[in-house]
User: Fold this.
Amino acid sequence: MNNLMRKILLKRSVYSFSANLLREEDLMAILEEGKQLSNVVNNQAWHFTAIQNKVVMKKFAELNAYFAIKTGTDDRTISGRNISKIIDNISTLLVISGSGDIKYTEDAASTLFGSMMLAADSYGVKSCWLGTKESMLEENSEAISQLLQIPEEYTPLCVGGFGYPIDDTDVKVTYLDSVVKIIR
Assistant:
């Protein structure tokens, strides 16, 4: 099995991170890898906003209906985890913004974040994908852009978290019984 396939098979989202901020060199290496990937439309640049300030993260969460929504007595969850507490555990929140034809760029932003998740793993940094423009950034997009000082020509499209894991135990590959159909 080649190294990339092994990384893909072993990739798991992490929702509990250590309190340590990412080392500057790890953060810059992950961002540099992300900067190299095109947004598919006219090869335009991305705008990355890496947030490590807990006050700004909290304001971001307050502006973001996705984090604030309650359904009955249970908080909204991602994989059974209380998302209102996820931001408290993330050392670096990353918002990827794009410009141009957002119809195509939004999908590319999520793909880009997935690639950055794989790159981060090379530096011992774990990650979790949190959402897209439609699921969490749409409602207060202007207020979020203002808070994060995102230039006017960019739209926030994707958000996720990075940090060092609390527990770095080996992850075992789980083979799924997926259905494959080939039509020739």
Summary: The two ends are 27 Å apart (CA to CA). Strands lie at 47-51, 70-71, 74-75, 77-78, 81-82, 92-98, 126-132, 155-163.
